[in-house]
């Protein structure tokens, strides 16, 4: 009974002599205004024997019932209702209880009780008042951030007119309370921690503490999170009295970090006033913010942090967070710096960095990498996540305790770029989670020249994070201590819940978008305000000097010390004559290259396998390697037909892929295949994950049962995203050269929603950032009468971006031709026509001594085409990938009699051979398949053109003339024959769409170009 008495008594307003106002004032005097250090006010006890039916254990139950009664008096039994009313009305111990009326007797007891309740007319009001206080507390928790002082400029553009905040001393009427209630004491609900060790507080104090917690420099958005424990965790982090206390040392460190951040930009401005650097002025507290996150995470055991960020403040982060040598940064401003011959390079504010060092605060090793990124805002987000996932994977960090990511964003980009949303949606998927990312937004309330009021529809730029229930900590960046506090909480949140969290640094941009830009053209009022704005360092230094935390002299010495460091580094930077982009590598691959950064050899071993290996992998591919596992009947048939193929020593496409994956896994190469529905395969041909038909979620991945010490195989259906997921896989592939990482598009044309990753990272990555990458793109492609969509993976675009010169025949020796070409190219593009060739090219991707992206146009109908099968003989040791597959039919016997060579690639080969056979032209027309489009196999094409000296040259493709391969192949064929013979075209005419939507039209077009290909007079008279 003790607890219930206490509870009930606490709810009673305190009588006049005990008013909380007087008590609170007394306490205020003793603690010098520190509102958060109240002592418990009082404690009531009541004799347990007075209520003999209640004891310690039942009091929990009673307490629960009491809360239920508070919410709704009818939710409890009438007798309890009376009891609580009486207790609340001040009945002395023992008198609140009325025994239930006797059966059949007059309801005397009840009548008495009602009479008693009747003389306490304020009970209802009392209950309502308590509910009102609960609502008020909740209002602060939900909407306190609306009135927090977040904006250093005080021009806040966040418009909450639609949702006015009914909080504050003046708004209590909204909750049915009035002025006179302010000094009444209320019991605090369990959903708040403002009381500290107190469980009751006067309303005035409640409001003051809520204002302190939610309406100062920090605005917390978290009440949308669907997890009570997480909400409670956040409440106690921000509500507990006395939370924002910092030691002297912490304050001094913070000041020193602010000095570095501020003086770095000032130094650059002094030395290179007309150079673009996308300075951090107006958000200098970003540097201590990041350092706080890193310190705290290091303290929690994190050893490696991978960061992605845009242009704003990047040089400052490189200098003061990653700790790139200052002279290396400064020399970048020297326009006379000669580029080393390692690539075409990138501007200084896009380059990445990798650095391992001792964290000074924790004295532990920490590796920091800042990923190189293109101008395309937010594109690097999924790449960072993929690399983080890979690092976690390779070090067995299954919970993200050792490796984590930090992503920085601009306010406009965070709200505007869809890839942000795609990346958030990867955050909790088993094969993609990095176990929590800390997002930091440099919210300078502007995007180039655009005002947020026309740049986004959400109140905050951070609203996108709500989709994954990430808490959002808005903070006034002019209050460095508040910034430091939220960053600590963010790091703790990540370490505790392994979920994403956002820190929104509300700041301003002191200059234009870059240092050359005039912001007054477009934001005159904002910039008038900014001009009046005192710098944050100055403000913070004055505060600390006033507090006595530092002396003015110490502050000035700190500045002088850092300025000297900059000057000395600047002097050293003048000695740098050559710009080595290699020094800016964000993902080194130790041991993969030799000491000079070159491949260890320039040969690649045979990609074939022994008969035994093929048989063994074939067996795994056609069986269920676990006991008591029921697979679908249709799948049993598929596995049986695979077993039959293995028996006959042939492979279809799926089996060829199996052979490549299985053998690489056995040899110790990790394989990761990701994309939409890749586990089964869009075309139901792959079946790498078997599902037990009787047990939910019971799966079997036979590929992981190949050999005892094999590398693990990861195959994962992705979210329905291309941009995010391809970026992620690219990042995964960056972490190590010893993994085959493949992304498959559902249909090849969908890759265009990931175009940015292809154009900005995959195609030019090595040239810009001297970073190799062996990612594989599998792009289903082929004109099969399925309409304009799903038909074309757009080979023309990939081919157009190859770095090869179409007009120059490469000058490599015959032995080295293939490998040198590969080494020089920016990516490899293949369109295999046989499973064996697909098998070889996948294996070559890993066995070759360097890494290049590989684009594979993969088939659809060929997956089941009876002729598109390969014999084991084509996959045995000693065999290899065929860049060109020559005609091996009757034409070989009398090559002089051949009138035409039709060059082609991919599936059209099967249509051409069928047509040739139907026309009886097997002796007169040769068909050669170019399997590797880029680098172009000039040498092997030349062998074919020389072999048939009397043949005219035709390029045949099923794609439209302005699409496909024609524009790419034609000049290369011409170069091969030294322009001695024309190159004719057989294919569909030019078109806007990739294919017709009409099946009949599709077939007519097909027949028409086949007619052209085999009409030996088709080009007569043309030039
Ligand atoms: C995808 C993309 N679109 C457009 C741009 C051009 N651009 C560069 S910076 C910028 C404004 C960015 O604003 P914000 O994200 O708020 O960052 P801030 O420059 O204010 O720090 C724009 C539009 C770009 N870099 N990337
Ligand atoms: Mg901005």
Could you explain how this protein is built, in words?
This protein is an alpha/beta fold. Helix content is about 40%, strand content about 15%. The protein contains 33 helices and 28 strands. Strands 3-10-11-9-8-4-7-6 form an eight-stranded mixed sheet, sandwiched between helices. The protein has a seven-stranded mixed sheet with strand order 17-14-18-19-21-20-26, sandwiched between helices. The chain has a five-stranded mixed sheet with strand order 23-25-24-27-28, with helices on both faces. The structure holds thiamine diphosphate and magnesium ion (MG). Thiamine diphosphate binds near residues 376, 410 and 448.
What's a concise summary of this model?
Helices cover 39% and strands 13% of the residues. By secondary structure, the protein is α/β, with parallel strands linked by helices. The longest helix has 25 residues, at 123-147.
Q: How confident overall, as mean pLDDT?
A: 89
Distance between the first and last residues' Cα: 106 Å
Contiguous low-pLDDT stretches (5 residues minimum) are 1-59, 103-119
Structural class: alpha/beta
Query: Helix share of residues?
Result: 25-40%
- Per DSSP E runs of 2 or more residues, the count of β-strands stands at 28
Report the radius of gyration as a whole number of Å. Answer: 36 Å
Portion in beta strands: 5-15%
Major sheet description: 8 strands, mixed
């Amino acid at each position: 009974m003790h607890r219930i008495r206490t509870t009930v008594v606490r709810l009673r307003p305190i009588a006049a002599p005990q008013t909380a106002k007087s008590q609170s004032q007394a306490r205020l005097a003793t603690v010098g205004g520190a509102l958060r250090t109240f002592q418990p006010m009082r404690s009531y006890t009541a004799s347990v024997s007075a209520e003999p039916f209640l004891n310690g254990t039942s009091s929990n139950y009673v307490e629960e019932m009491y809360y239920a009664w508070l919410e709704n008096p009818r939710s409890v039994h009438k007798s309890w209702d009376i009891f609580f009313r009486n207790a609340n009305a001040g009945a002395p111990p023992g008198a609140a209880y009325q025994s239930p009326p006797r059966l059949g007797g007059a309801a005397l007891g009840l009548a008495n009780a009602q009479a008693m309740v009747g003389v306490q007319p304020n009970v209802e009001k009392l209950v309502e008042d308590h509910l009102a206080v609960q609502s008020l507390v909740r209002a602060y928790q939900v909407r306190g951030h609306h009135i927090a002082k977040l904006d250093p400029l005080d021009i806040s553009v966040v418009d909450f007119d639609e949702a006015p905040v009914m909080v504050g001393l003046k708004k209590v009427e909204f909750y049915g309370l009035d002025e006179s209630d302010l000094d009444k004491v209320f019991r605090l609900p369990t959903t708040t921690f403002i009381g500290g060790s107190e469980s009751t507080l006067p309303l005035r104090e409640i409001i003051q503490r809520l204002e302190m917690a939610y309406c100062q420099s920090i605005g917390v958005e978290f009440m949308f999170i669907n997890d009570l424990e997480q909400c409670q965790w956040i409440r106690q982090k921000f509500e507990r009295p006395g939370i924002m206390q910092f030691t002297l040392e912490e304050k001094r460190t913070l000041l020193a970090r602010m000095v570095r951040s501020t003086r770095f930009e000032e130094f650059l401005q002094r030395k290179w006033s007309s150079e673009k650097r996308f300075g951090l002025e107006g958000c200098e507290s970003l540097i201590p913010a990041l350092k706080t996150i890193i310190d705290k995470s290091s303290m929690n055991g994190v050893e490696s942090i991978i960061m992605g960020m845009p242009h704003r403040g990047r040089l400052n982060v490189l200098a003061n967070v990653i700790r790139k040598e200052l002279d290396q940064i400064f020399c970048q401003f020297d326009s006379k710096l000669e580029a080393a011959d390692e690539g075409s390079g990138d501007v200084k504010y896009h380059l990445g960095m990798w650095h391992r060092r001792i964290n000074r605060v924790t004295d532990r090793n920490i590796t920091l990498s800042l990923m190189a990124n293109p101008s395309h805002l937010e594109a690097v987000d999924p790449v960072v996540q993929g690399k983080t996932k890979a690092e976690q994977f390779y070090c067995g960090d299954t919970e993200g305790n050792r490796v984590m990511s930090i992503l920085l964003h601009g306010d406009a980009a965070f709200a505007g770029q869809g890839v942000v949303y795609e990346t958030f949606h990867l955050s909790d998927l088993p094969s993609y989670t990095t176990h929590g990312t800390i997002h930091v937004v440099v919210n300078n309330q502007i995007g180039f020249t655009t005002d947020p009021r026309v740049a986004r529809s959400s109140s905050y730029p951070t609203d996108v994070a709500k989709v994954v229930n990430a808490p959002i900590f808005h903070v006034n960046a002019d209050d460095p201590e508040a910034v430091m506090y939220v960053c600590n909480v963010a790091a703790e949140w990540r370490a505790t819940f392994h979920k994403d969290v956002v820190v929104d640094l509300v700041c301003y941009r002191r200059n234009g978008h870059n240092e050359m830009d005039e912001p007054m053209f477009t934001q005159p009022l904002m910039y008038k305000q900014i001009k009046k704005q005192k710098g944050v360092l100055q403000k913070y230094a004055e505060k600390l000097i006033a507090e006595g935390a530092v002396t003015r002299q110490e502050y000035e010495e700190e500045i002088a010390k850092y300025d000297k460091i900059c000057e000395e580094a600047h002097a050293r930077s003048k000695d740098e004559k050559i710009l080595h982009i290699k020094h800016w590598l964000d993902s080194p691959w130790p041991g993969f290259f030799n000491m000079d950064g070159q491949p260890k050899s320039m040969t690649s071993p045979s990609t074939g396998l022994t008969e035994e290996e093929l048989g063994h992998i074939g067996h795994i591919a056609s069986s269920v390697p676990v006991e008591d596992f029921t697979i679908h009947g249709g799948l049993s048939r598929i596995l049986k037909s695979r077993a039959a193929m293995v028996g006959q020593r042939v492979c279809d496409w799926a089996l060829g892929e199996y052979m490549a994956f299985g053998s690489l896994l056995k040899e110790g190469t990790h394989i990761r295949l990701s994309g939409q529905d890749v586990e089964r395969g869009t075309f139901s041909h792959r079946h790498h994950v078997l599902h037990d038909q009787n047990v939910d979620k019971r799966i079997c991945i036979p590929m992981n049962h190949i050999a005892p010490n094999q590398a693990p195989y990861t195959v994962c259906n992705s979210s329905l995203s291309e941009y995010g997921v391809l970026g992620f896989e690219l990042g995964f592939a960056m972490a190590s050269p010893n993994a085959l990482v493949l992304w498959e598009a559902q249909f090849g044309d969908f890759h265009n929603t990931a175009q940015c990753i292809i154009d900005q990272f995959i195609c030019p990555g090595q040239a810009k950032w001297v970073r190799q990458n062996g990612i594989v793109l599998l792009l289903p492609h082929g004109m099969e009468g399925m309409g304009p969509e799903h038909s074309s993976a757009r080979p023309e675009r990939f081919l157009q971006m190859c770095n090869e010169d179409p007009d120059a025949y490469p000058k490599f020796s015959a032995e080295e031709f293939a490998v040198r070409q590969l080494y020089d190219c920016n990516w490899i593009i293949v369109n295999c026509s046989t499973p064996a060739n697909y098998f070889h090219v996948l294996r070559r991707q890993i066995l070759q001594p360097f890494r290049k992206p590989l684009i594979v146009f993969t088939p659809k109908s060929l997956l089941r085409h009876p002729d598109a099968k390969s014999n084991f003989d084509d996959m045995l040791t000693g065999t290899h990938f065929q860049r060109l597959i020559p005609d091996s039919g009757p034409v070989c016997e009398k090559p002089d009699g051949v009138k035409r060579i039709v060059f082609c690639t991919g599936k059209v080969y099967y249509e051409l051979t069928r047509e040739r056979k139907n026309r009886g032209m097997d002796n007169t027309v040769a068909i050669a398949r170019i399997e590797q489009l880029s680098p172009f196999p000039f040498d092997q094409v030349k062998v074919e053109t020389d072999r048939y000296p009397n043949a005219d040259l035709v390029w045949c493709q099923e794609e439209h003339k302005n699409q496909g391969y024609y524009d790419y192949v034609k000049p290369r064929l011409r170069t091969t024959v030294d322009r001695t013979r024309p190159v004719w075209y057989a294919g569909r005419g030019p078109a806007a769409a990739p294919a017709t939507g009409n099946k009949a039209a599709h077939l007519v077009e097909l027949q028409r170009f086949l007619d052209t290909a085999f009409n030996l007079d088709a080009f007569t008279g043309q030039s």
